[in-house]
């Protein structure tokens, strides 16, 4: 028997009042996430990512639609949902006048840990995020990156079965990001933790996510593995440099006739060939061009990135949107 999804949303919408009426921030969100999955939720600013995550974590009531998280309805049983999840928002979670160690300890106690267990676990996450030396500091005296490490530690201290992470590595240096994902991988491996996260660091989504959901205009417009999204939405590119513009036009025409080639464009002496599998298309292309007397001076294979996928789907670069 197949286990029910740990997240299931159907037709989830959220409307906000504005001066001229109402605006739909989320328009019919349909999402299913299996227990143990790591899912990246990507989209441009204003696409509805944070609003969706806040509805799924019971922080915002939906205007319409239904959602069950960790086996409970987010509207009918929000407390049951909250007991089973961890949530990291974009803002600072720790109280500015509280000590770091007290915030971590209290978070554990809120989730039912004994005093001894909460103290031990607070020490573990403090060490994991290099907070041990800051334990007696007040949160408000920390730098932005240090406060973010406290936020992440608070979200993980109770080892939740489901984690919602909104830009978890924002403000973290490379060492901090590495520590974060090492701990997240450990949680998943040891406890089967499900991770649902937003990020502008596309390499995180590419490297760690089992699936990528792309949302734009309040709706999910793509849902697949990173590898399949890159192959289907962007494809590989073969960049050719020819001896002159006439040869470039000839090379592009030949390339378009080859199996697996989607298109070929010319810009001066350069030809860009879009192919489903560039590593297979490249040797066939070189042989065909050589036989036609149009051998290129150079050839370079470029693999697509998730930013290429994002650009193709939304018309925006994720990197530009994050800047």
Short précis:
The chain is α/β, with parallel strands linked by helices. It folds into two domains: 223 residues, Rossmann fold (3-Layer(aba) Sandwich); 68 residues, Alpha-Beta Plaits.
Instruction: Round the mean pLDDT to the nearest integer and report it.
Output: 89
**Neighbour order of strands in the largest sheet:** 6-7-8-3-9-10
CATH superfamily of the largest domain: P-loop containing nucleotide triphosphate hydrolases
Structure class: alpha/beta
Question: Could you explain the architecture of this structure?
Answer:
The protein is α/β, with parallel strands linked by helices and 323 residues long. It has two domains: 7-229, 3-Layer(aba) Sandwich (Rossmann fold); 236-303, Alpha-Beta Plaits. The chain has twelve helices and 14 strands. The protein has helices at residues 49-56, 78-84, 100-110, 115-128, 144-156, 174-191, 202-208, 226-234, 245-256, 278-291, 306-314, 318-322, and strands at residues 7-18, 21-33, 38-42, 64-69, 72-73, 85-88, 162-166, 194-198, 211-216, 219-224, 236-241, 261-267, 270-275, 298-302. α6 (174-191) links the parallel β7 (162-166) and β8 (194-198). The radius of gyration is 24 Å and the shape is elongated. The mean pLDDT is 89.
């Amino acid at each position: 028997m197949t286990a029910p999804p740990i997240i299931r949303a159907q037709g989830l919408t959220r409307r906000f009042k504005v001066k001229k009426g109402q605006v739909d921030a989320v328009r019919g969100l349909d999402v299913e996430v299996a227990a143990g999955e790591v899912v990246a939720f990507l989209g441009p600013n204003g696409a509805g990512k944070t609003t969706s995550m806040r509805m799924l974590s019971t922080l915002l009531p939906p205007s319409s639609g239904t959602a069950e998280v960790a086996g409970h309805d987010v509207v009918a049983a929000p407390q049951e949902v909250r007991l089973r999840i961890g949530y990291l928002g974009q803002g600072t979670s720790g109280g500015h006048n509280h000590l770091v160690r007290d915030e971590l300890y209290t978070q554990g106690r809120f989730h039912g840990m004994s005093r001894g267990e909460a103290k031990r676990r607070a020490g573990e996450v403090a060490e994991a995020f290099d907070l041990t030396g800051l334990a007696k500091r007040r949160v408000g005296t920390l730098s932005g990156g240090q406060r973010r490490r406290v936020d992440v530690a608070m979200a993980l201290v109770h080892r939740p079965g489901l984690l919602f992470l909104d830009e978890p590595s924002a403000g973290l240096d490379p060492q901090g990001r590495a520590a974060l994902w090492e701990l997240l991988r450990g949680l998943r491996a040891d406890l089967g933790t499900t991770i649902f996260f937003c990020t502008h660091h596309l390499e995180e989504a590419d490297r760690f996510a089992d699936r990528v959901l792309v949302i734009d205009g309040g709706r999910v417009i793509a849902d697949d593995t990173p590898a399949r999204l890159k192959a289907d939405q962007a494809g590989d590119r073969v960049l050719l440099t020819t001896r002159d513009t006439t040869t470039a036009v000839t090379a592009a025409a030949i390339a378009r006739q080859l199996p697996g080639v989607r298109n070929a464009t010319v810009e001066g002496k350069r030809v860009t060939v879009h192919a489903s599998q560039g590593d297979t298309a490249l040797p066939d292309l070189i042989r065909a061009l050589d036989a036609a007397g149009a051998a290129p001076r150079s050839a370079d294979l470029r693999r697509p990135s998730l930013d290429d996928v994002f650009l193709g789907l939304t018309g925006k670069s994720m990197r530009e949107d994050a800047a």
